[in-house]
Every structure is written in C-alpha cells, then in structure tokens.
Write a structure and sequence with these properties.
By secondary structure, this protein is an alpha/beta fold. It is 32% helix and 24% strand. The chain has an eight-stranded mixed beta sheet with strand order 3-2-1-4-5-8-12-10, with helices on both faces. The chain has a two-stranded antiparallel sheet with strand order 6-7. Strands 9-11 form a two-stranded parallel sheet. The radius of gyration is 16 Å and the shape is globular.
Length: 214
C-alpha cells in the first residue's frame, strides 16, 4: 500500500515506519524535519505543516491510508496544540480523498472499571495528564464523526508503552485496559506497530478504538 505517515520521526512514528517498510509498504513520511528520517528504500520524507490544511491535504492525496502519530509533547500547550493539529489532520484527510485514517491514541481513556477511565484514577501521573486528556478528547471527536464520511480507527496502547522487542504476541481488546497475570499493563512500541500495521492490512476495527497489551 501507499501510506502517508504523519509524525514518522517520533517515538511511535519511527516504530510504525520501520514495521510498514519491513512489510513492503511505500511510505510518505510527513515530518517537520526530514533529516530525522533515515534514507531507506520505500520511504519518501517530506516536510509538512500539520496546521496547514491545504498543504497537508495535497500531501495526503493519492494514498491508500493515512496514519497519524502526531503529538503535542514538545509544546507548552500540549492538549490544545494536539487537538488543533488533529482537527487539521481530519480536515485534510477528508479533502484529500484518502479512504482511511489510523490514529495513535492514548491509554488514559481506557476503562479500569465500569465508567472509570485510567486518566481519572488517583494514581495517574500528573506529567502525562495533558497529553492523555488530549487523546481522550480526540477519541470523542472521532466518535462524533463515526457516521460521516471518515473511516477511522484509533489504537490505544497499554498503560506502559516502552522500547523493547517485536514479538507479535499480544492480546487485543476494545475500551478496557488490558493487564497481564501480574497486573501489569504494558506493550513494546515495536509490538504496538505490529498491531497498527496489521489493522492497516486487514481492517477489523472500522470507526472504533481498540487496544493491546501482553
């Protein structure tokens, strides 16, 4: 497939890029700094401005799918910047004609009990709350457009997303936080990428969020 990957040089984006090209996909890496994307067969790095809908739309045109690993972690207003960027990505994807949008989500909006999301628990780390709230609002935004003209999927990771190994052995869920037998909720970024590219190749969660963990 021909895939546009927004944020291809970041922590999650670089793992998605590696997995996609390993499977033979042609990837347009849309980043702020093209020098951060290694020159590899199957990858075309292009400088983009996520906030510019017209420019981004033109760059997304003629792709089979768009994957966004865009985040606001480097900004002062993490939540606001992320939501403005996501709205721009939604508008650009629609106008480009790209048929699918896959979104890197957060774990904060996963339920740990009926009606209780992880972000609302007392022990949720304060330093991650702004980005988690942005991701939660992004999910709500996507759900609001679920019956319109955008075929989206969001993949929320386990509570602990870390560098590790590619095992391709994990469990999938929907809106509840998954944990292992020891109560740990974790996944490597490499296996997160496996699940996302699996979804790209064989869609199973159209207009839905799903999650994964060991």
């Amino acid at each position: 497939m021909k895939v546009a990957l927004i944020g291809a040089s970041g922590f999650v984006g670089s793992a998605l890029l590696a997995e996609a090209i390993a499977r033979g996909h042609q990837v347009t890496a849309l980043v702020q700094n093209v020098e951060k994307v290694a020159q590899k067969s199957g990858v075309t790095a292009i400088k983009t401005d996520v906030m510019n809908v017209a420019t981004l739309s033109a760059q997304l045109r003629d792709h089979d799918a768009v994957i966004t690993a865009f985040s606001g972690h480097a900004q002062t207003d993490i939540e606001g910047y992320y939501l403005r960027g996501l709205n721009s990505i939604l508008a650009a994807t629609r106008s480009s004609g790209a048929p699918r949008l896959l979104v890197v989500g957060g774990a904060g909006s996963l339920e740990v009990a009926p009606g209780l999301q992880l972000i609302d628990t007392p022990d949720f780390p304060e330093q991650y709350k702004k980005s988690a709230e942005g991701a939660r609002q992004a999910l709500n935004l996507l759900r609001d457009v679920s019956n319109q003209d955008l075929d989206w999927t969001m993949l929320s990771p386990a509570a602990y997303l870390h560098p590790g190994e590619r095992t391709a052995v994990f469990r999938l869920g929907t809106d509840s936080l998954l944990s292992d037998a020891n109560g740990k909720s974790q996944i490597s970024v490499q296996d997160y990428a496996v699940a996302m590219i699996d979804e790209l190749e064989k869609p199973a969660h159209s207009r839905r969020r799903f999650t994964l963990a060991y």
